[in-house]
Amino acid sequence: MQHLAIITTHPIQYNAPWFRLLAERGHIAIKVFYTWSQVQNEEKFDPGFGKAIAWDIPLLEGYDYTFVKNTSKNPGSKTFNGIQNPTLIREIEDWGADALLIFGWKFKSHLQAIRYFHNKIPVLFRGDSTLLDDESVIKSVFRTYTLRSVFSKIDYALYVGSANKAYYERAGLRANKLVFVPHAIDNKRFASAGDSDIPEWPNVLRDKTIFLYAGKLELKKGVGFLLSTFSALNTKDADLIIVGNGPIEKELKSLYGKINNIHFLDFQNQKTIPSILKNADIFILPSKGPGETWGLAVNEAMACGRPVLVSDKCGCAADLVEEGKTGFVFRSGDANDLKDKIGWCIQHRNVLKQMGANASQKIQDWSFEKIVTAIENLVNSPDK
User: For the segment 39-51, what is each residue's pLDDT rounded down to a tens digit?
Assistant: First the structure.
């Protein structure tokens, strides 16, 4: 059986379930090497939420893993030198890896592993960066040069969608080095969740159209733009629910907290968020970047049978949003465009249920099963 070593910084609620599925299927052996060892026995402070987060679903069950000692003086995943693991390469070799899958290259130890294992065993790379952020010509040229240097040591890039694929193509990777491994969430868990178990749900009238944002309250998410645009509509036929916490929370609540049809809820964990999504009519992700990559909250909403309104700065927009069928894409920062789309949804509330059903059907092709099958086929291929 082929042995796949996986390098990533810390347990993530979107990845752990398909690590477990890979192990359960037994077509390859896996071991996950977590490089941010300081989070092993404590909650991880998330600056995007502005608080320590402990996910309420199991992230370390059903697969083999280890936390590799991180010797950085300032450990964390925000800087290159925040991840330094002197024993990482030796531990991977001692385990007997036949292939390597690395999440993220902008960490010292991850980049060292890419360079060391190049031409020794197949090196697979997983990331979700895009070219959707606006940048200067100088910055674009520099990034292209850097990417080509890094990805020349990669055997296969596992792209999550079309915008991510374009990023790898810019880095010089040819078609035979690009493998589609879709971004996904636990569709079955979200679809099967009840629709009544909602903590502290606002007192909204059910004859209104309920719009929902759930995520971090930080600048790149564009929540301030959403609130400004929605409040300017001055509609009595819709409510907007904002779920989450973060660095701009106080400012947003000061500006919009007293508006009757705008409501704020604190961060909701994985067990309660499906019910939150199912009690809204439509989900909005207004991200403006820089640094917005995909937007997995959109997958979650669609798995719950909800249509979506998505900014064109989100990597998922091109792949998941079929205009007028599963939702709408609006131009980032264009208040008139967003107003028009919100207004259409209010006027055609009776259509949203069918759009939600379309969204639910669409997201079935973006699944954990597709992820693990693609990885198994690649690792077990005699031509890898």
Answer: 887 666 666 566 5
Helix (H, G, I), strand (E, B) or coil at 46: strand
Q: How many CB atoms lie within 10 A of CB 41?
A: 7
Q: Evaluate whether 42 touches 67 at the Cβ level (below 8 Å).
A: no
- From 63, 60, 51, select the one nearest 13 (Cα to Cα): 60
Instruction: Give the span between the Cα atoms of 9 and 39, in whole angstroms.
Output: 9
Unique residue bearing structure tokens 């990023």: 167
What are the structure tokens assigned to 17, written together? 């379930």
Sorted by sequence, the CB contacts under 8 Å of residue 36 that are 6+ apart come out as 9, 10, 67, 70, 75, 76, 77, 82, 83
29's CB contacts (< 8 A; 6+ apart) are 1, 2, 3, 4, 64
Q: How many CA atoms lie within 13 A of 274 on its CB side?
A: 16
List CB contacts of 121: < 8 A, sequence separation 6 or more. Answer: 97, 98, 99, 100
The residues with which 310 forms a beta bridge, in sequence order, are: 285, 329
The total number of residues shown for the chain amounts to 384
Q: What is the pLDDT of residues 240-278, one digit of tens each?
A: 999 999 999 999 999 999 999 999 999 888 888 999 999
Task: Please state, in angstroms and rounded to a whole number, the distance separating the CA atoms of residues 165 and 169.
Answer: 6
Distance CA 178, CA 146 (A): 19
Phi-psi region for residue 299, left (φ > 0), alpha (ψ -120 to 50) or beta? alpha
Written as one letter, the residue type at 170 is: R
So what's the pLDDT on residue 242? 97
Q: How far apart are CA 290 and CA 301, in angstroms?
A: 23
- Cα–Cα nearest to 227, from 264, 265, 200: 264
User: How many CA atoms does the CB half-sphere of 71 hold within 13 Å?
Assistant: 7
Structure pTM? 0.91
